[in-house]
Amino acid sequence: MITEKDIEQFSAQCNEIFKQVARDVIGQKEVVEWTIVAMIAGGNVLLEGVPGVGKTRLVRSLGRVFDLPFSRIQFTPDLMPADVTGTNIIVKDEEGNSSFRFQPGPIFSNIILADEINRATPKTQSALLEAMQEHTVTVMGVSRKLAEPFFVLATQNPIEQDGTYPLPEAQMDRFMFKLIVPNPTLDELMQIVDMTQKTMKEVADAACTGEQLLRMRETANQIPVAEEVLRYAMTLTSATHPNSENASEAAKKYVRVGASPRAGQALISAAKVIALIKGRFNVAYSDINELAYPVLRHRLKMNFEAIAERVTADDAIKMIVEEVSKNYKAKK
Prior knowledge:
Layout: H1 4-21, H2 29-41, E1 44-48, H3 55-65, E2 70-74, H4 81-85, E3 86-92, E4 98-104, E5 111-115, H5 122-125, H6 129-134, E6 136-139, E7 142-145, E8 151-156, H7 169-172, E9 175-180, H8 186-198, H9 210-221, H10 227-238, H11 249-254, E10 255-257, H12 261-277, H13 285-296, E11 301-302, H14 304-308, H15 313-331
Helix pairs in contact: 2-12, 10-12, 10-13, 12-13, 13-15
């Protein structure tokens, strides 16, 4: 049973994590908070932004703050699956006998930075699918369990098209959140330049161990979700499907393919963490509405009408949330 002391400890731990990350990352408060929420909830994160806005620095800083082994994989068109997962190599013993030995790849770490993930071919991108979902890696028919906690934090550049490969839908669905990293404001830009003139290295201190992170996740899992709130979250997910019985008018007009059941799971898992950070014992409707954007924006496929009218996924989500929320209030 979760107690008030558990909530206080959880909140204090989160505040310390936010404080340490802020030593390395200027601004980007919302992106930092959502990334940490996803990590506590056990999800992977896709960070999208133009070069130089601090995506890679944020992930490196999180590796320091959570005091976890960290691997960086720079995705390029010539990267092969074995370069990610590892492979069997031939080794000889003292007597000259040959045998196979597994050489682990960089995926065998706790925090994986998949830098510029859309630069790798679909064949290499697919090497991450099993690791992201099952937290296992299968090479030559042998499955190996990855150490917990395990996260993939990927970055991609939205404006570059040459030499990039769109992420397959199955992989996009395995990211709990897609976060848009905005350009810094003038004041933030001045602080960034001032800070990086002194040192380019991260200076954040460890604020949470892997064991503490797993305990925080267990605490969050105990947060209750009222049946009505759960139904609201699932209705919101269902409303993104244009052919669903709960389809919203916005989905019928602008959406070609809606969100998967993983979106519903992500909404609830992350909402529990947010409730604890805000010092609450239960998940609220507002938590679900707040999470709709990072959870759904990469799972909605917009149709031609949306493209023609320049309606983005975020625009559609706003319309869907307003419609579902209004209908729920009307029923009450």
